[in-house]
Amino acid sequence: MDDLFSFHPTPGPENRIRELRRLLQHHNDLYYQQAQPEISDAEYDTLFRELEELEAKHPEFHDANSPTQRVGGKPLDSFQQVTHLMPMLSIDDVFELKDAPVPEQELIAFYQRLQKNLSRDNVAVTIEPKIDGVAVTLVYRNGTLDYAATRGDGTTGDDVTQNVRTIRTIPLVLAGNDVPDLLEVRGEIFMPNAAFAAMNEERDEAGLPTFANPRNATAGTLKQLDPKVVAQRPLAFLAHGLGAYEGPALRSEADFHQLLDQLRIPRNQPIFHADSLANTLAAVARLNVSRHDLDHATDGAVIKVLDRADREALGFTSRAPRWAAAYKFLPEQKETTLLAITIQVGRTGVLTPVAELEPVLVSGTTVSRATLHNQEEISKKDIRIGSTVLIEKAGEIIPAVVKVIRQPDGSVPFSLFDHVGGACPSCGGAISQEDGFVAWRCTNFQCPAQAVTRIRHFASRKALDISSLGESVAEALVRDHLCRSPLDLFDLTLEQLAPLNLGTEEEPRRFGEKNAQKIIDGLAEARRKPLKRWIFALGIRQIGESAAKELSRLHKNFAELAQSEILAELCRDTRADAKKKNPLLLPYAISGDVATVAAQSMVAYFRSAAGEKLLESLREHGVDPQSDNYQPKPAEIDLSQQPLAGKTFVITGTLSAPRDEIKQWIESKGGKVSGSVSANTSYLLCGEAGGSKRDKAEALGVKIIDETELRQLAGTDSSGSEKTPD
User: Fold this and answer.
1) Which residues does the chain have with pLDDT short of 50?
2) What span, in angstroms and rounded, lies between the C-alpha atoms of 509 and 498?
3) How many domains does one find in the chain?
4) What single string gives the DSSP state of each residue in 624-647?
5) What are the tens digits of pLDDT across the range 604-618?
6) What's the pLDDT score for residue 2?
7) What CATH number is given to the structural domain containing 509?
8) What 3-state DSSP class applies to 229?
9) Cys-Cys link to 264, which of 163, 175, 308, 491 (CB 3.0-4.6 A)?
10) Rounded CA gap, 102 and 99, in Å?
C-alpha cells in the first residue's frame, strides 16, 4: 500500500498533481473494481481535497480524466453528436412464448439457423444476462477515456462523456502498461437494484415522482444536461462487446473477457458456455433462475457465437448480427388479495401508502407488501382494500401492483386523507398537500415517526459524520426515549450510550463503551463542522448538499440564516426568473440549487417549533457553526465592456481544452456560446473534425475561426496572456 503521509514529491505542483491522480486512480480501482480498499474514506477524502485545491490553483494542469472530474462539470447546452467508429447495431430478440407447446421454440429456431449456416451440429456459444440498461460505447485511446456515446440510431449517438465520467465503476485511465492503442468497449449503463430502491425511497420521502424501473431511471439520468445531477445518481457499467480495436489479436470471446479483466473494465457476468442445443437450453434455464440473485435488472439472456471466425462467416443483416440473439423471459406476475393499506411516515414527513398483501411467491421471493407511492397512483389504478390485484417485481426487485383484476362487492375508492382522518398517524399533527406535489405530508417537524431517520441522516457521512451512529443505534435511542430530535444527541453521556440494547429482549446486544465513546467524540467533532454540513444535516425538505452549500455561501451562520432577507425575498417573488430580474436578488448571483421551493422550506422550518428549538439548543450547547465559503456578492464584472461582448459563438471539433472550459473563457470575455449554428451566429470556433456544423456555417456565410483567431478577437496574444495597450 502507498504510504500516503510519508510521500515526498519532487518540488512543484505539477508533480504532486500527477502523483495524487495516480494514487486516487489506484484506490478507485481497489474500491470499485476489486472490492479490496486499502485506505479509509477519510484518507481518500484528504487526498481528493488536496488534489481539488491544487487543480483550482493551477488550471494549466487540467485533465478531463482527473479523478476530481467524477463530481460532474458545468451543465451542457445540448448533446453533441458522435459518429460511431463502427456501427452500433442492435441484437434481434427471440421470445419465450407464454402459451406455446414449446415456450423456447424461437430460441431453438435461432440455434438451428446457426447449425445450418455453419454446416455443423455443435456450435459453441456463450450465454449471459441481458442487462436492462442503456447501451453505450466507451472509446479509449492509448489507455485513456477519449469519449463515450449512446447508441442513437446505430450510426451516430449522443456524446455523453461528461456524464459517463461521473460513473465510478468506469475507469478513466486503464490499468497496466500493455494497453491497446484503440479500444472501443460496448456495454450497458444501469442502476444496481439496491441503489435504485434506495433512490426511489428517497424520492418517495421527498414527495417526488418515483421511477417505474431501473432502466427508465438510467435513461432519464443519462439525458441530463447537468453532469452534477448525474454524479448524484447511482449509475454503474458492465461491458459486453467489442467495437473498434487496435491491439493483440483476439481469437474468441474468452480472449476479449481476459482483456477486460486485465484492464480492470467491469464486464457482464455470469457467462455460461454451451456447445449444443440441449446445453444451450439448459444454460438459459439456469440463468432464468440465477438472474434473481444479480444486483441489476435483467429481462433475458444474450446468446453469442463464441468463435470470432464463425462470427465473420455468419456476418450481419442491415441492423443486427446473425451470430447473436436476445432471448426475452416472460415477466413473472401473480394474482393476490390486497388485505389492507397502511400508512408510513418518512424522514421528511411524507405519508406513503403501502399495500398489505396475501403472501405470494414472485421471482424467487415471497411478497407480502408493496408500496403504492401516493394518492395519485392509487386513484389512477383504482386500488381498493379487498381488491384482487396483479403484482410483479418492477425491474425484478421492487414489488409493484400492476393493475386491479377484480373489485370486491360494496368497495369504495380509497382516500388517504379520509383513511388517516386528516391527521398524521404518528403524531396527530396536521397533514397538507402542497401545490405541484402529489404527496401528503406531516407538517410537524418534531413528529416522532421522523425521529429515527432524522437522527440517522444527521449523523451520516455527508452530514456531520458521527461514527457508530447507525440505524439500530438511532432506533434504540428513540425507543428508550433518550432522543426525540437530533439536537438531543448533545445531551447524551457515555453512561447512557454504553448499555444500549441493539438486540432483542431474548437476545440482547450491548452497544459498549468503545462504540459509545466514538459517538461522544464524533459529537465533539461535529461542533466544529462548517455551516453547510449542519444545514444539510437537518434533513429539511428540498435542501440537499448543493443547496446547503449555496445557503452557506449566502449566510454566515444560523442566526443570519433564520432572519434571511434573501430567503424572504425568494419566497415573495415567485417568478421563474426572479433571481435574474429582481434588483434585490440579482447582486447575490444565486445558483439554481436555491429556488422558491427551497426558500419556502427553510423559512417554514425556522418559523416552526423545531426551528426555534434548534436555535435555542445551539445556544445552550455553545455551538455556533460558521460558513467556510461565505461570499454573498461575487465580484461583479461589467461584461458589456469585454472584448467579445455582443458576439455569439458555436464550438465544434476537437480543441486544445475541454469544450466547457473554452465556453467559460468566451463568456468571461463577454461572449455568448450557443449549441447550434444559425444566421445569428457571429463565429464558428472550429477544431479538428468540425463535421456538420462547419458545413452549415459555410452555407450560412458564418465566419469560421480557429483558437488563434479567437485569442486575437479577445485581445490576447498567442500564449493567451492579455495584450498590453500601446
Assistant:
1) 1-10, 717-726
2) 11
3) 6
4) --B-SS--SSPPP--GGGSTTTT-
5) 888 887 788 888 888
6) 42
7) 1.10.150.20
8) helix
9) 175
10) 8
Domain boundary among 279, 294, 328: 328
Q: Tell me the Ramachandran region of residue 249: left when phi exceeds 0, alpha when psi lies from -120 to 50, beta otherwise.
A: beta
Is 81 part of a structural domain of the chain? no
Residue type, 627: S
Residue 223 designated active-site: no
pTM listed for this prediction: 0.53
What are the pLDDT digits (tens) for 439-491? Answer: 888 877 678 778 888 898 899 888 999 988 888 898 899 889 898 888 889 99
Amino acid at 113: R
Q: Which residue has the cell 429481462?
A: 299
Interatomic CA distance for residues 478 and 494, integer angstroms: 16
pLDDT of residue 8: 43
Residues 151 and 216 in one domain: yes
Residue 138 parent element (H or E) = strand 134-141
The whole-angstrom separation of Cα 552 and Cα 566 is 12
Phi, psi of 324 (to 5 degrees): -145, 155
Q: Which of 375, 410, 442 is at the close of a domain?
A: 442
pLDDT at 611: 84
Task: Taking each helix axis as running N to C, give the angle between helix 609-620 and helix 596-607, from 0 to 180 degrees, rounded to the nearest 10.
Answer: 70
Beta bridge partners of 391: 334, 401
User: What order of strands is seen across the sheet that includes strand 93-95?
Assistant: 93-95, 324-328, 298-305, 125-131, 272-274
Q: For residues 482 and 492, what is the distance between their CA atoms, to the nearest angstrom?
A: 8
| Active-site residue (options: 57, 98, 130, 663) | 130
Place of cell 480557429: 706
At what angle are helices 105-118 and 277-290 packed, to 10 degrees?
140
What range defines the domain where residue 698 resides? 639-713
